[in-house]
Predict the 3D structure of the following.
Amino acid sequence: MTAYTLYEKLWNAHAVAELPGGETLLYIDRQILHEVSSPQAFVAMREAGRQLRRPQTHIAVADHAVPTRSPRADGIRHGTIEDAQAASQIAELETNVRDFAVPYADLDGAEQGIVHVIGPESGFTLPGTTIVCGDSHTTTHGAFGALAFGIGASEQGTVMAAQCLRQKRARTMRIELSGTRHPLVFAKDIALAIIARIGADGAAGHAVEFTGPAVRAMSMAERMTLCNMMIEAGSRVGLVAPDDVTFAFLKGRRLAPKGALWDQAAAAWRDLASDPDAVYDRVIEVDVASLVPQVSWGTTPDQTLPVDAALPDPAQLAEGPERRQAEKALAYMGLTPGQSLTDIAITHAFIGSCTNGRIEDIRAAAAVAKGRKVAPGIKAIVVPGSAATRAAAEAEGLDRILIEAGFEWRLAGCSMCVAMNDDRLKPGERCASTSNRNFEGRQGPGGRTHLMSPAMAAAAAIAGHIADIREFAA
Amino acid sequence: MSQPFTTLSGKAAPMPEENIDTDIIFPARFLLITAKAGLGRYAFHDRRFDADGAEIPDYVLNRAPFNAAPFIVAGANFGSGSSREQAVWAIAGLGVRCIIAAGFGEIFHSNCQRNGILPITLPADTVAELMVAAQTEQSFAVDLETQSLTVGNRAFAFDIAPERKLALLNGWDETAVLLHQYSGAIAEFETRQKASAPWLYAEDDAS
C-alpha cells in the first residue's frame, strides 16, 4: 500500500481534476478576505457579473489598514479613522461583504482581528481543509493540519467564483524537532533558527511538515508561530498533523462541527497524519535543546543570529552573494561589523502580529514586564491579534501589568508589522519586533527591524537595547 | 483578459541583488490604493525616490535605457515576501513584461502569470551571464511560443507549464476558463465531499 504524507493526503482529497501539463485543479474549502487584498477581486466579480459560488465558505475582516487606537472611551473605531484612504478601504470591504453576502467580522465586533488569528479562534480554520487568503502568512493555518496558502487578488476572484484554483503540487520537506528546549526559547526562536539555517528561499517549492516530540509538546499558538514563519523560508505551506492538542483547541468554537458531526470529523482528522513510512523529498533535523534565543540583524529573515553572537564582518566573508547581502544589510540597518547584538539600542518595541499576537504571546511579554518599567524614551506597544485575545488578556489582568510597566495597550490589528496604518517607524528608528519580516521599509520607510520572540521584545523594551532574556530573567 | 504575451524584445534592467522582496517592489503604505491601474509610479518607490520625492539618479530604473526596459534580470528569490498582487501590477505599470531570475517568490510568480507577465527561471550561472549582458545594454528577445530567450547571439530555452503558456499566449481569464471547462467536475466534487465530510457544508445549509 502506498504511504502518503499529510500534504499528499490533503492534496489528493481536494483534487477536482488533473490538468494537462501536471497541474491540478484543487478544491478550496475556505477563503478569508481582508480589506487590502480583496477590493480588486470584488471589482473583477462585478465586472464579470459573477456571484460567489459558496459565500458561507468565506469570512471577511478588516485588519491591515485599521488603526489600533480609538479616540472613544468605548474603543469603537467606526467613524473615527483619520486616514481617509484607510477609512475608504474599510468602507469598500463593508460594501462588498453586503453586496456579495459574505460573513463579516465587524471592525467593532467581538470577532474582529488579524485574519490568521480569528480564523482559528472562530473555528473557521479546521483540519483537513484547504484554506486560502490574500496574505502570504496564510501558512499559519497549517498548524491545524489544513492545506493553507497565500494567494494574489486574481486568484481570490477565481476562488470566489469557482471555489477552485489551479495549482502545482509542491515537493515535501519534513522538519523533525527533537529535544527539550530552554524555557525561554520559544517557537519564534525555533522558526528563526531554521530560517537562518536553510535560507530565505531554503524551503521554496516545498510544503514543510513539522514532526517530532518537540512539536507534539507545543501549544496551538506555538505551532501557528512555526507555520506562520515558513513563508520566510520561501515555503507557501507549513503543516502540523492534528492531534489531541488540536481537537481540544477547536472543540466548542463557534464554527467547529457540533455533536455527531464533531465525532465524525475528529475521526477523519485522526487519519490525516502522515503514514509512518511516508517518504519526503527532504528531511531536516533540529535539536531544539541546542537553541538559544534568536534575533535578526539584517534585512532578510535568514540574517538571524543567536542573541549572544556578534554581527558578521563582511570583510571576513568570501566574495559572493552572502558578503554582498551582509554589506547591504549592515549599511541599511546602521550597524557595525563585529558589534554584539546585545549592544544594539532600540527606539521601539512591538509585540503583536499574526506571528506573535496570541494570548500566550501576551502572557510571555507580561511575565517579563511585571514589576519592571520600559526604559525611558522607548515607545513600546502591545497589540492583541484579535478582539477576543484582547478580552482574554484583560480578563487575566495582563493589560494592567503591561500598562503599569509603560507599554501601550492597543486594539486588535496588524499594526506595526506592516507600514500601512498609523503604527509605523520613521527613518532611522529601530524596533524590537515580534513580527515576521525585517525587510527594508517593512515597518516604515527607513525603519529598522529586529525580529525576536515576545519575551525578548519585552526584555528589549525594558533594557532599552537588545537583551538576552535568559540573563534578564535571572 | 490580460494582454496576450507572444514575443517581446528590448533592453533589460539589471538588478544584481538577491531577495528583492515585495515590500521593496511595492511599499506597503501604497496598498491603501484600491486601483489596479496607474501603480507604475510606486514600483520600487523607495529605491527610485528619496524622502523628498526626488529621483535618485543612480538607481537603475532612473537611468536610460533601463527606465524603458521591458525586461528585468534579477538576483535569486525575486518577489519573495507578501502576496500583494500590486507588486506585479506596479511592475506591469512600468512597462516590464518579462522577469528573469534564478528563482521567484511563489505567490509573486503565480501573480505574474495572471497578469500577462512572463517570469523565466534559469540556473544561477546563466542568470549571472545575462546580468552582464543586461548591464552592457545588450538586447533581449523572447518568444513564448518556442520557449526561447535570445541575448546577442546566444539562445536559452526555458520551461513553462503548458496550460500557463496557453493562458499567457491568449491572455485568458483563468476564472472564465475554469468555469467553462470544469463546472461539472467541480459540482461532482462537491457532491462527493458533502457525503464524506458533511461538516464542511453545515454553514451553507444553515444560511
Observations:
- The beta strands of chain B are 7-10, 12-15, 71-74, 98-101, 118-121, 140-143, 148-151, 154-157.
